[in-house]
Design a protein that fits this description.
mainly beta; five-stranded antiparallel sheet
Amino acid sequence: MTRPDDPTNPLKADLPQTGPEAAMAGGGHARPLEGLGFVMDVPIEVTVEIGRRSMKISDILRLGPGSVLELDKVSGEPLDIYVNGRLIARGEAVVVGDHYGVRLTEVLVVDEAGRSRGTE
């Protein structure tokens, strides 16, 4: 299998140039990167919400080990998946080895007006 950075890769000419060689190719000026490659290393926060609950402070102070909080979601209802606070998908809880995971069942697409719609 040929790697993208392999000099013998016939598709290498199609890859955007980065680094000093890109600046030199553009007459000393760096040209904007095409696509999203320049943001692929930016960390984001992914949150999976299994439910919510509003409580009074007095109720919170009574919590202790063994306390159970009933959430607003029914068992089997899809979990909400947020990226940087924005709902982007829904899924179901799974166990992978000794860890929990989420299997995506619906990815939400945001249109230009900022409204979400589901895709499956």
